[in-house]
Amino acid sequence: MSETRGSHSKHEDMELLNRGPWTVEEDKLLTHYIACHGEGRWNLLARCSGLRRTGKSCRLRWLNYLKPDVRRGNLTPEEQLLILELHSKWGNRWSRIAQHLPGRTDNEIKNYWRTRVQKQARQLKVDANSSKFRDAVRCYWMPRLLQKFGSSQTMQYSLEANTNTTTSDQVQHRPCQEIINPSMQYCQLGSSSSHEPQAPENHSAVFPPLPVNMSEFPWRASDEIHGVAFNIFSSGFSMNNAYDLGTCDLTPVSASAPIYWDLDYGTDNNDCSNYNGDNLWSMDELCDMLKSYVSGADIKVPFSDHNS
DNA sequence: AAAACTCGCAACCGCCTAAAT
DNA sequence: TATTTAGGCGGTTGCGAGTTT
User: Domain residue spans in chain A?
Assistant: First the structure.
């Protein structure tokens, strides 16, 4: 680029740009401009709006923060489940994963993975991408999330209502309940002589108990486990490392569509700040449990009547 | 009370791809 | 067809708040 007298060089232009956290005034300016002109053409927006920001910066601020349907607050257990599941299938395809969590941004999901999930892997001294860790996620973390999911008192979610009786309307508005199939099976690792699924006798039995005998878990590659791999998303069993999404409807969902969760977080669908996190799965619990196992200590297994 | 440490998250960076010229 | 530009994505950084020592 040539520089002419009286014009700014690229370097000078860069120096004129604002960087760092956005101010309230900048937010207002950006929101107002988009309200008048719509999204897109970010470089043009950056030039014409009066914002001294790059187009990229404007785009990021809008998509990750200012856009009205961005949801804020803690990730729900269901959302955590979806992230774990979809990440196991697609890896670090954050934007693709985010398409299935309406109102959640790829940045948020990425942060969740790095700060929560990878932290657990580090504490367990395993690679987050290893089969060991995937097994831990699949056989401990996900079932426990499902237990949280299922034991939520405020959740209008019943086994009956979701066993092959979902209406087309429900499918349309509650895609996650289509994805998270309550008829998932137990994780049975080394503790059962049978690999057949056990039919749940009551509601609580639907949610998988933790295995009593973990002598082979988790320190075996998943493809060596002679039990049955836990698979929350299909009614059958999977022996694959990836959690087979099977025939689930993975049509990306729109954040502008009605929020599909029935949890009573608050009146504002996009605001999860009222969600107190009680139902969140504590990863520290998981870590402690696995550490206890490694050290040979008895492990208390909550939620399960199969361990008495 | 204050320093040190940890954590969560917003924002930036660099690369890649597709569209425009 | 080659080059430029814009947009999108994943990785990384830095800062503020909270917690621990």
Answer: 20-66, 77-295
A12, A136, A152 from A111: Cα distances, Å: 33, 20, 25
DSSP three-state, residue A156? coil
Phi/psi for A141 (5° steps) reads -65, -50
Tens digits of per-residue pLDDT, A186-230?
233 323 333 333 323 222 222 333 332 223 333 222 322 223 233
Which nucleotide is closest to the Cα of A283 by its C1'? B7
CA of A248, C1' of B16: distance in angstroms: 31
> What is the per-residue DSSP string for A77-107?
HHHHHHHHHHHHHHSS-HHHHHTTSTT--HH
Q: CA–C1' span, A94 to B21, in Å?
A: 32
* A105 vs A73: CA distance, rounded Å: 12
CA–CA distance, A84 with A262 (Å, rounded to integer): 21
User: CB of A118 under 7 A from strand C?
Assistant: no
Give per-residue pLDDT as tens, A75-117: 887 888 888 888 878 888 888 888 888 888 888 888 888 888 8
Closest C1' nucleotide to A112's CA: B8
A106 Cβ contact partners less than 8 Å away, ≥ 6 residues apart: A94, A95, A97, A98
Rounded to two decimals, the pTM is 0.60
The sign of the CA dihedral A178, A180, A183, A185 is positive
CA of A282 to C1' of C19 (A): 18
CATH superfamily of A20-66: Homeodomain-like (1.10.10.60)
Please give the Cα distance from A259 to A174 (Å, whole number): 7
* Chain C footprint positions (protein CB, under 7 Å): 5-12, 15
Dig out the tokens for A41 from the structure.
């053409």
Those residues whose beta carbons lie under 7 A from strand B are A 18-22, 53, 56-57, 60-61, 64-65, 72, 74, 107-108, 110-112, 114-116, 119
